[in-house]
Each structure stands twice: as structure tokens, then as C-alpha cells.
Amino acid sequence: MRRLTSGSDRSDKVLFPLLSATVLLGISATAAHNVFGGGYDYRETVSVWFRGVFTLQPHPAAVADAPLLFQLHAVTACLLFAAWPFTRLVHVWSVPFGYLFRPYLVYRRRAATPAPVVDHTPASEAPVRRAA
User: Fold this and answer.
1) N or C: more exposed end of the chain, with fewer CB within 10 A?
2) CA–CA distance from 90 to each of 73, 84, 116 (Å)?
3) Do 108 and 43 meet the contact criterion of CB atoms below 8 Å apart?
4) What pLDDT shows up at residue 22?
């Protein structure tokens, strides 16, 4: 367990529960209201509010009548977006285009002594040693 937490920092310890809560609240809201319940069309309320948040013209009345699970899901999603730049999620926006055009890397062995030279000359062509 120590090996797993050694690569984590404080932002990970906040991010993972927040990300999990957002996903689980979204799944449970959909399951509770649309699979097992009578159905709820969030596209007429929550989506209108969310689109308004992005265009800087939110309609709070649109989300006020939404079921509690959808409201909690929206709140955790907003918290996730607020925490995004301060966590490792910021790396999702960096596309490594440099990898497509970088030169091929040649890895060499790091040895204290050079590798032995192998003579691939056939025995019939090898020079003849004469005894002195």
C-alpha cells in the first residue's frame, strides 16, 4: 500500500473521491429515476442550466425542481471542474504531438567494458597461424 501512496499527492486524495462521487451520483441518478423510477428528462432542466453556466447565463430555476440526485451530481461536477487545473487532470489537455515527429531513439547498453568483438569469418578463410 505504501508503494501506491508514494506516487500520490494531496490533490489526488481529493480528486479520486470527488471523481468517484460525480460518476456514482450520475449513474445512481439515472438508474433511480430512469431505470427503476417513473422517468425524468434531465435534458429539459439540468441540461438547460448547465448550458447556461457555460454561456455565463445560468438559469437557476431550471435546476431548482430537479431531483436531489441530479442536483448533487451537478454540484460535484462543478467542484470537479473547479479542481481540474490544480490536479493531474490538467494533463488531459496536453496532446503529445512531438512524439509523432521525434527521431527514432537508439538505446545502447551501459557497460563498464566494451562488448566482446565476435569474428564472423568462416574457419576456411581465417588466417593460418604458423608455429615459430
Assistant:
1) C
2) 21, 6, 48
3) no
4) 94
Q: Domain limits of the chain? A: 21-90
Whole-model pTM? 0.62
Cell 551501459: give the residue: 110
Q: At what angle do helices 46-54 and 68-83 cross, to 10 degrees?
A: 20
CA atoms of 64 and 43, how far apart (whole Å): 14
pLDDT value, residue 38: 81
Q: For residues 31 and 9, what is the distance between their CA atoms, to the nearest angstrom?
A: 33
Q: Give φ, ψ of 109 to 5 degrees.
A: -75, 135
Q: Is 89 exposed, middle or buried (0-12, 13-18, 19+ CB in 10 A)?
A: middle
Q: Tell which residue, 43, 49, 48, has the closest CA to residue 30.
A: 43
Q: Based on the number of CB atoms within 10 Å of its own CB, is 70 exposed (0-12), middle (13-18) or buried (19 or more)? A: buried
What's the full length of the chain, in residues? 132
Task: Tell me, rounded to whole angstroms, the distance of Cα 103 from its chain centroid.
Answer: 26
CB 40 within 8 A of CB 34: yes
Q: Which of 25, 54, 19, 56 is nearest to 42 (CA)?
A: 25
